[in-house]
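Colleagues,

For the teaching module next term, I've prepared a clean inverse folding example: a structure given as C-alpha cells, and then the sequence designed for it. I'd like students to try predicting residues themselves before seeing the answer, so please don't circulate the second half yet.
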C-alpha cells in the first residue's frame, strides 16, 4: 500500500472526497465513511480514455476477483465501487472533471516515482 500523503484522496482531490462523503452520509454507510480519510490512490483506470478520471484505491488485481462481494454507489461524478466491504475503485465518468482528475493523479504519481 502506498502511504504517501501526496496520494491521499482527501489531500489530492478534496472535491471528489467530499462528493463521496456526502453520498455515504446520505446512505448512512458508516462502515465506508470511516475509510475515506485513509484512502490512497494506487493507480489510474487504464481504459485509455484521456477524459476518464477513474482510479483505484486498492490493488487493481483485487477488483478483478469475481468471488468478492461487489456493490456500487452512485455519486455526482460517477460511482463508488466496493469490494468485500472495502472502497476499491472510484469511477469518474469521462468529462471535464474526469480530465482534471486524471491530470492531477498522473502528476502526483510521477512525483512519487522521482
Ligand atoms: Zn477509465
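(Answer key — instructors only)
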Amino acid at each position: 500500500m502506498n502511504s504517501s500523503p501526496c496520494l491521499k484522496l482527501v489531500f489530492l482531490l478534496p472535491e471528489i472526497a467530499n462528493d463521496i462523503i456526502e453520498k455515504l452520509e446520505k446512505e448512512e454507510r458508516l462502515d465506508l465513511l470511516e475509510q475515506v480519510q485513509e484512502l490512497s490512490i494506487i493507480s489510474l483506470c487504464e481504459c485509455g480514455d484521456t477524459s476518464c478520471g477513474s482510479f483505484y484505491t486498492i490493488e487493481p488485481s483485487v477488483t478483478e476477483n469475481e468471488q468478492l462481494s461487489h456493490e456500487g454507489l452512485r455519486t455526482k461524478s460517477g460511482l463508488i465501487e466496493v469490494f468485500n466491504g472495502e472502497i476499491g475503485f472510484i469511477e469518474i465518468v469521462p468529462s471535464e472533471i474526469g480530465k482534471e482528475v486524471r491530470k492531477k493523479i498522473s502528476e502526483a504519481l510521477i512525483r512519487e516515482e522521482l
